[in-house]
Structures are given as structure tokens and as C-alpha cells.
Design goal:
The complex is a heterodimer of chains A (147) and B (375). Chain A is built from five helices and no strands. Chain A starts with a helix and ends with a helix. The termini of chain B are far apart. The relative contact order of chain B is 0.14. Classes of the chains: A mainly alpha (147), B alpha+beta (375). At the A-B interface, α1, α2, α3 and α4 of A face α3, α5, α6 and α7 of B.
Chain lengths: 147, 375
């Protein structure tokens, strides 16, 4: 067996070993009655991704491809959407969790902060095409330089 | 050759994009795993480690746990982007071609499920929102190993493709490879998203980013006496009756007992030390109290002895904690009575709490009532 193949096989074997270790922690070391709920939640995570998030992302992509002027600014708007989506997912726990008894937990105004971030992203996504478009100052300067 | 039931117009669901996003994700998960194991060991303090736990640098755990939570959060957009690059595989027909193919799809399924759930558990844990019917600590630990194992297996299986697409193909004039420009734009977008989620949360432990910590579940500036509180006195079910007539009992070869006034009368030392919570936030404070080492000497504790600290707290995994010999004799380890110039309030562990360097917050026991020298 060549060196690279041996390395691959070794890596795969270590991977399987570590998975078995994790399985041991889950099945033997954890409190009894842990494994089944965890298996359900694992399946649930995949289902949530495949059947809730994937269609959403595909729909957003479909819309993005049909917006006017999308050719030039699709990359920018795509980046803004990816950023907005990621921020929203990461913010979801602090936005949705019921107010805790401990005042130093979740002390900030999260709905406001999240909304502010969305507005900033939207403003950025609109301002750049306006500035650099044919009517915009940046666009005029670019065209002047080129002629 | 993937024959998709659904036609994917975009050409970026390709091995090159998957490799580039994959290596960012892999790096984040690897750092997350290593720092996670460190955190686990520092909390569990297994016997073989107890005598060797380092007391410096003071900010050691602050760094590792800050990295752990930051890489975990950064992994969210990276994982979702990586999964996007292989969306067509969700729809591939036939679903299973052979036993080997089935096994490969199963291992990928395990990797995807474990990573999705692990990041989800971590994200909700830092907001202390426990919506699942199992122990966070046990499952988060177990899944970490499943995740890393599945990741290594995945890399081993995909090694040829990863190698082939690791480097960009020979540079071509922009026009000749339209995919490259679009790919760069997409990668920039993913990088921006990853940077954004990091910037708005890392401030809960990184002072530099504190003003931008808009979505962080904790903020170092928000808390009583200048420090956030994790377990409140109410949550620990500390009642005034418990505190009346409080004495510190020190059990050792020469046991003794002190009232709060007597404790206050002993020589006081000061230390600026951070509280670093496992949930990834940290904040520094000025602590004042009696050096633990001096109390242990008075009790006749041998120099290599560990100490058990017992709290008035009712229930909870860290009602008692053990301090190893290194920390026990460290001059920075205090039984603190005052914080930031004022007497400890109930939420911060009145009348006395342990504070030491380079240790997780859960081990900085509050409402201390007894110290036991361990042989």
C-alpha cells in the first residue's frame, strides 16, 4: 500500500475510533435514557436543515437571480443576505428565549440590536449600487477616468 | 456523476468551493474541539491532572474558552455554506448505489447531524436556554468526539478531491474563468458573514470588541458590583438563616474555625483576576481577601495537598469543588471577601468565595462555608 493510501486508511481508522469513543460516552457514560432523545434530536437537526432551511435558501437564491440589475450587484446582495441570515440565526436564541430571572443574563436590547444590524446591511446593499450606478457620483468618476 | 432531480443552475456547487469553505470550517471545528477538551479537563480535574494544572498565565482559560465559543459561533455560517455547496447531493438519484455508497452517505449523515446539533446545543447553552431533555454537558462532550471522528473519516474519504482542489487551477485571465470571479464573491460573502457573527458576540470576552457585542448573551459591563452573575443567590437557594452565624470551618491536621470578622481581621491580599465562564464570557475584577495558602498553612496542610471547597449552595454539580496543590498555594488564590472596593454581595457569593487564576468560573466557588484538606 502506498504511503498516501496508508495515511488515508490510518486517518479513516482514527476517525472511526473517535466516533466509537463518542458513542461510548453517549451510550455508556452518560445518564441512562440519553441515547434515544439524542438520536431523535440528531435526526431533527438534519430534518430542520433539509426541509426548512434548504427551501428557504433556494427560494432566496431564486429571487436574487430575478431582481433587476441583479447581474452587477448579485454578488453584493448575496453577501448581504448571507450575512443577514447568519446574524439572524446566531441571534435567534437571545431573541426568542423567555426573559431570565437573572438580570445579568441577556442584559441587552436584542430585538433593537438585531433590527439595527438588518437596517445597516440593507442600507449598505442599497447605497453601494446607488453610489456606483450610472447616476451615482462614484459611477461618474469611474466613467470619467475610463474615457 | 450526480444526476440531480432538481436542476441547480449555479455552478458553485463544485468541489473547489466545497474545499475552500471546507477547510475554513475544518479549522474552526478543530480549534473548537481542542479548546473544548481543555475546558472539559479543567472543569473535571481528573486525578492524573490535578497535581499538574497550570496556574499561569492568568488569562489562559479566558483565551481557550473565548476561542471555543468564538469558533463555535463562526462555524455556524461556515457549516451552512459548506452544506450549501453540496445541496445537489441531497437530491441525488439513485439515493443509494451500493453498500459502500450507503456507508459513505451514512457517515456523512452522522457528520452533518452531529455538527448541526453540536453547534445548536452550544449556541443555546451560552444563552442558558435548555430546551432538550438530556444533560447538556454530557451530550456536548460525547457529540464532540462523534463529530471529530466523523470529520476525520470524511477527510480521509475525500482526500483525493481535497488534494486536487486545494490550489486554484493555473491562473487564467479573468474572462476565461467566470466561475472564479463568482466564487471569490461568494467566498467573500461567507467570510463577511463569519466575521460579522464573530464581531457581534466576541465582545463578551474580548475587551477590544466590547462596544460591538450587540448580540452577545452576556455583557461584561452589565452586572452587580461591576461583574455579571451566573448563578444568583436565589437560584442557589441561599437563605438569610444560612448566612446568620456563618463561620468558615477549615478541616485539616490542625482544624479551626473563623467568623467573618475574624477572617476580615487576617492580613488581606489583593488580586486582579478574571471570572471566565464556560459560556464564553469573561470580566476582570479587583478581589480582596485572605490568601488560601495562609489558611491552609494555619491548618497544617502538607505542601502538596489538595483542598475541597464546600458551598452553602443547595444542589448543583459544583456545590463542592477541588483545588489542586498548585492553585492552593498560588499567592493569587484568595478566599475573597470584597470585590471592586465593596463587600461581596449575595449574588457574588457573600460572605466568601474562591477566586484563582486560569480556572473556569464554575470552580470559583461562591458562598464558601468549609475547606477540607485532602490527603
Amino acid at each position: 500500500m502506498s504511503g498516501v493510501r496508508a495515511l488515508r486508511a490510518g486517518l479513516g481508522a482514527v476517525g472511526c475510533l473517535l466516533m466509537a469513543v463518542g458513542g461510548w460516552f453517549l451510550l455508556v457514560d452518560a445518564r441512562p435514557g440519553t441515547a434515544v432523545p439524542v438520536a431523535l434530536w440528531l435526526a431533527g437537526a438534519v430534518l430542520l436543515h433539509d426541509f426548512a432551511l434548504v427551501p428557504l435558501v433556494l427560494a432566496a437564491g431564486w429571487v436574487l437571480y430575478r431582481l433587476p440589475g441583479a447581474g452587477r450587484w448579485r454578488g453584493l446582495w448575496r453577501a448581504a443576505l448571507i450575512t443577514a441570515g447568519s446574524l439572524t440565526l446566531v441571534a435567534a436564541p437571545v431573541l426568542l428565549r423567555p426573559t431570565p430571572a437573572n438580570p445579568s443574563l441577556l442584559p441587552l436590547d436584542y430585538p433593537r440590536n438585531w433590527a439595527l444590524l438588518m437596517v445597516l446591511l440593507a442600507a449598505f446593499a442599497v447605497a453601494v449600487p446607488l453610489a456606483a450606478g450610472p447616476a451615482g457620483a462614484l459611477g461618474r468618476r469611474l466613467r470619467k477616468g475610463r474615457s | 456523476m450526480v444526476s440531480a432531480a432538481v436542476a441547480f443552475r449555479g455552478r458553485l456547487h463544485d468541489p473547489r468551493t466545497a474545499t475552500v469553505v471546507g477547510r475554513w470550517l475544518g479549522a474552526a471545528l478543530l480549534v473548537c474541539f481542542v479548546t473544548g477538551v481543555i475546558s472539559h479537563l479543567l472543569q473535571e480535574q481528573p486525578d492524573w491532572l490535578l497535581g499538574r494544572l497550570p496556574t499561569r498565565p492568568v488569562w489562559g482559560y479566558r483565551l481557550t474558552q473565548g476561542l471555543h465559543v468564538a469558533t463555535g459561533i463562526a462555524a455556524v455560517p461556515l457549516l451552512l455554506a459548506k452544506l450549501w455547496t453540496v445541496y445537489p447531493r441531497l437530491f441525488q438519484r439513485p439515493a443509494v448505489r451500493s453498500w459502500r455508497h450507503a456507508l459513505e452517505r451514512l457517515s456523512v449523515g452522522v457528520l452533518v447531524a452531529a455538527t448541526l446539533l453540536e453547534l445548536f446545543l452550544g449556541l443555546l447553552n451560552i444563552a442558558q436556554w435548555y430546551v432538550w431533555p438530556f444533560s447538556f454537558r454530557q451530550v456536548h462532550w460525547a457529540l464532540a468526539w462523534v463529530l471529530v471522528g466523523a470529520l476525520l473519516l470524511h477527510v480521509a474519504v475525500k482526500a483525493p478531491q481535497i488534494g486536487a482542489h486545494w490550489r486554484r487551477r493555473r491562473p487564467q485571465p479573468e474572462g476565461a474563468d467566470p466561475d472564479e470571479r463568482d466564487r471569490r464573491s461568494l467566498l467573500l460573502g461567507v467570510a463577511a458573514a463569519t466575521g460579522a457573527v464573530t464581531v457581534v458576540t466576541a465582545g463578551q470576552t474580548l475587551p477590544l470588541l466590547r462596544p460591538l457585542a450587540w448580540l452577545a448573551p452576556r455583557h461584561p459591563d452589565h452586572g452587580s458590583q461591576g461583574l455579571p452573575v451566573n448563578r444568583t443567590a436565589a437560584a442557589a437557594r441561599i437563605t438569610p438563616e444560612m448566612l446568620r452565624g456563618w463561620r468558615l470551618d477549615v478541616d485539616g491536621p490542625r482544624p479551626f474555625s473563623l467568623t467573618l470578622a475574624e477572617l476580615g481581621g487576617l492580613p488581606q491580599s489583593r488580586a486582579v483576576l478574571p471570572i471566565t465562564c464556560v459560556e464564553g464570557w469573561s470580566a476582570s475584577a479587583l478581589w480582596e481577601g485572605v490568601r488560601l495558602g495562609e489558611l491552609l498553612e494555619r491548618a497544617g496542610a502538607p505542601s502538596g495537598a489538595a483542598v475541597r471547597v464546600v458551598s452553602l449552595q443547595q444542589g448543583g454539580a459544583f456545590r463542592t469543588s477541588v483545588i489542586g496543590p498548585g492553585h492552593a498555594r498560588d499567592p493569587l488564590t484568595l478566599l475573597a471577601l470584597r470585590i471592586n472596593g465593596g463587600v461581596l454581595n449575595a449574588d457574588h457569593g457573600y460572605p466568601a468565595r474562591v477566586i484563582s487564576a486560569n480556572r473556569p468560573g464554575v470552580l470559583q466557588t461562591k458562598w464558601v462555608t468549609r475547606l477540607e484538606v485532602l490527603a
